[in-house]
Amino acid sequence: MNAATAARLPGHPHIARQDGALQVEGRPLAELAQKYGTPLFVYSKQWMLDALAAYQRGFAGRDAMVCYAIKANSSLGVLRVFAEAGCGFDIVSGGELARVLAAGADPAKVIFSGVGKTRAEMREALAAGIGCFNVESEAELDVLNAVALKDDRRAPVSIRINPNVDPKTHPYISTGLKGNKFGVAHDRAVAIYRHAAALKGLKVVGIDCHIGSQITDASPYLEALERVLDLVEAIEAAGVPLHHLDFGGGLGIDYNGDTPPAADALWQQLVTRLDARGFGQRRLIVEPGRSLVGNAGVCVTEVLYLKPGEEKNFCIVDAAMNDLPRPAMYQAFHQIVPLAERAGAAATYDVVGPVCESGDWIGRDRALQVQSGDLLAVLSAGAYCMAMASNYNTRGRAAEVLVSGKTATLIRRRESIDDQLASERFSD
Ligand code: LLP
After folding, report:
1. I want to staple 316 with a disulfide (CB 3.0 to 4.6 A). Which of 190, 251, 305, 392 is the partner?
2. Residue-wise over 333-346: b if at least 16 C-beta within 10 A, else e?
3. Nearest ligand 1 atom, CA 325
4. Is the same domain home to 300 and 414?
């Protein structure tokens, strides 16, 4: 990209405007929208790899594995980027297992999280030879043991500890507090580990925690780390050795002037504490999702209509809550930026989609200078957008393009109405 004319947009680590046009890796978004239509998700491979590199710098010289939490964005083309970069994967369903295997993952680098694994999912994951089950309850331990014994296997397990730490994020994405459904209580951990170690179908390999998502402060991580290490000492004193320590994901990204620590800075801080407590050489696992892909993607949408209202002006676009569910679900903020700048004064709009709900909004009170037919980019849309997309209002899911240097690859074609109707019947 020509540094003289490319200007980075404020509040985003990568997106730049060159000669007036918004770009991803030097590729004008308008060109891609014209070719593939809208709404369109566009991802940058390099920006994903840059985000991964920050973790790798933080773990330099350590025995560490980054397991990308694929729930953030499970498209095969995205998974392949991380598989080729040597990452492991954190999955939460049999469907996600099938996805990572289809993308070429090494099963030994796959860990399986989640509070509600079914027997069938356990069986599939055991047969695939995954690296670890992150078990979330005593009942699950017993079921996994039974499933493994029946198939004459031993399931590698880690137990998810609920450290009772406040991650200071949206309540729907806090997971490490006593009132949450996740993990086992700190006070019960030693007894549960003793029980697990006695079960013949299980092999205890580690311990894990995950305290929440979009965490923008290092302190909850430091607090959780101390509490997990206290437990590791107690569990090992009870005669159960732990091979790895998994600290989950959760690191936030900058959506709107948020200032999360960089992954390398955070992990340098955390490994310093691990060293101080004598755990610096232990195998470390992390499960980042959002921080690897969130700022590597945008959603391009077309302005359909401008509708002046009595109290508000509406800018109605062709993307909706079924494509970008985060504002409706968590009142989340995504920057919305025109692909091409227009001269003149901006007006204030609520940017909304065509879905028949007042909750279908993408941005509120945004100053925009736009006309119908203009294209807008919804930024930081790489995580928890396409992966949470639905067919509500019988809307087909958007197409996705992965840009890498000069190459733009359609990694998912737009969903057709035939795709949507294919599994439905009038009779059986
Ligand atoms: N590990 C476990 C066990 C998790 O439950 C999650 C996310 C992660 C790792 C990855 O967390 P991340 O690094 O992406 O924060 N849909 C919400 C976020 C839900 C997060 C669920 N668990 C959103 O759009 O904000």
Report:
1. 305
2. bbbbbbbeeeeeee
3. 24
4. yes
